[in-house]
Amino acid sequence: MGIDPGLTRLGLGVVEGSVGRPLTMLDVDVLRTPADLDPARRLRILADGIEERLLLHRPDAVAVERVFSQHNVRTVMGTAQVSGVAMMLAARHGIEVHLHTPSEVKAAVTGSGRADKAQVTQMVTRLLRLTEAPRPADAADALAIAICHLWRGGAQNRLAEAVAKAAGR
Amino acid sequence: MGIDPGLTRLGLGVVEGSVGRPLTMLDVDVLRTPADLDPARRLRILADGIEERLLLHRPDAVAVERVFSQHNVRTVMGTAQVSGVAMMLAARHGIEVHLHTPSEVKAAVTGSGRADKAQVTQMVTRLLRLTEAPRPADAADALAIAICHLWRGGAQNRLAEAVAKAAGR
């Protein structure tokens, strides 16, 4: 399950697959909260939506986009709060959590860490063999994060296993 | 309940009282998580500790120190994640959440928004008539946030009520 965190719009995508095999989209959704609601209630609404989908899909892993404080400070704080809630909920349900930077996600799905939103959406649509592009961009981003984790996370795990085996552990 | 959020140390203080009456400390604690644990598990440990105390004390309100991204970016992101978790949990338990800036908290307990940690600890110790200063500083800060909310939040509520009454609502 990939999560593109945000207080106003939170993208959530569930993808099944592994390196070298076709990917399948199991779910995609965007959770929204009204900007005039107090932040704690907005976080609660998002928490309930995330938890519902964690219980429904029981994903092997949750991948969350890593938040940087490069942009608007107010937005970033809200985004960090949401990502903390998502990470905590996954941990409570015994699901492993991984963070990927935006450029890791872009590079994984398009081959370039500097791809724009349109390129990411286009590649996600092609990789998941969808008839229509996922809308809005947060939905496509969440799917891209899930795909990035399936490919990168998988490769990292196999490498770690090989190293552990070689070390006789 | 006042919360001074942090991944490594989270201060938590429960104070009873109102404007113009003596304050009573009901609880003070510092939750800690090991720095080498992955962030999602650290958030989960803190969430469990916060929730335990929310259920134990059933506070009227939870006051959380507002996070700014002025300092170390990495630390701030972790702190924002923790504050998001605390806010969401309070909302889930139907408890109102308020944020106060560090300078509001300092001004409320010491009279100066630029007071240092020692002055805050000293005033908290005096206001709560404690025989020993709360340690570490995160514990004193959490109590200061709780006191700030009792005084500021209370005053704001009474003002809002008076305005509503005057408007015939």
From TrEMBL, chains A, B:
Q: What class of enzyme is it?
A: hydrolase
Alphabetized GO MF terms = crossover junction DNA endonuclease activity; DNA binding; magnesium ion binding
**PANTHER family the UniProt entry points to:** CROSSOVER JUNCTION ENDODEOXYRIBONUCLEASE RUVC
In the record's cofactor note, how is the cofactor described as bound? Binds 2 Mg(2+) ion per subunit.
Indicate what this protein is called per its UniProt record. Answer: Crossover junction endodeoxyribonuclease RuvC
Domain of life (superkingdom): Bacteria
What is the organism field in this record? Aeromicrobium marinum DSM 15272
EC number of this enzyme? 3.1.21.10
Its function? Answer: The RuvA-RuvB-RuvC complex processes Holliday junction (HJ) DNA during genetic recombination and DNA repair. Endonuclease that resolves HJ intermediates. Cleaves cruciform DNA by making single-stranded nicks across the HJ at symmetrical positions within the homologous arms, yielding a 5'-phosphate and a 3'-hydroxyl group; requires a central core of homology in the junction. The consensus cleavage sequence is 5'-(A/T)TT(C/G)-3'. Cleavage occurs on the 3'-side of the TT dinucleotide at the point of strand exchange.
